[in-house]
Amino acid sequence: MPITTDTLTPHQRTVLSYIREFQHKRGYSPSLSDLAVAFGVRSKNAVAKVVTVLFRAGHLEKDPKGRIKIMEQPQANETAPMMLPLFGPIAAGFAAPVEEQAEETITLENYLVRDKSATFLLRVKGDSMIAAGIHEGDLVIVERGKEPRTGNIVVAVLDGEFTLKRLVKEKTGRVGKFFLKAENPKYPEMFAREELTVAGVVRGVIRKY
Fold first, then answer.
1. Catalytic residue of the set 33, 116, 165, 186
2. Of 194, 170, 165, whose CA–CA distance to 180 is shortest?
3. Domain boundaries defined on the chain
4. Is 145 left (phi over 0), alpha (psi -120 to 50) or beta?
5. pLDDT of 135 higher than 50
6. Domain 116-206 has what CATH class?
7. Choosing from 43, 65, 128, 177, which is the catalytic residue?
8. Does the domain spanning 5-109 belong to CATH 1.10.10.10?
9. Which of 8, 112, 131, 194 has an alpha carbon within 20 to 30 A of 203's alpha carbon?
10. Would the pLDDT of 25 be above 50?
């Protein structure tokens, strides 16, 4: 008969909660060494025994490399994170031997979004950023409140109009003027007549084939 969380000991429930929280924040599950450090034990055998109980109870499973991951279903008011196995690396040049086992399991949300409350998506229109790998129809992941740096791709407000460009600074002495640069030679560099502000910094691109 499967063991429910109610029948686990307090320590077993604590370990399970820690694994769940670790996995939610980082996108992969902790190793036995991680658990040993977290619970202040010198031997991995102590946490291995707890993990074995949770594994037999159906709360955990192991991937082909023996790493653990949570098996519990989310509560009705929770949204399950999308957990996908990460394989690789894969050669983009010459072919390489096939790696059949996943390196780890990642959560796309945690991988792509650092601060959910400050992140939004924009759909790209036009071809001014194609040399940066951003094409028309792509979705860009933009983070508000992040301090922009020279070279960042940003969502900028140039004289009251929004645009997606690379932020560049003139190399004219110690106090240079910021301007916007397209990643397509068809488009000119853009200087503000009155005001240039940054609404957000691009952290990633999503493209559906």
1. 165
2. 165
3. 5-109, 116-206
4. left
5. yes
6. mainly beta
7. 128
8. yes
9. 194
10. yes
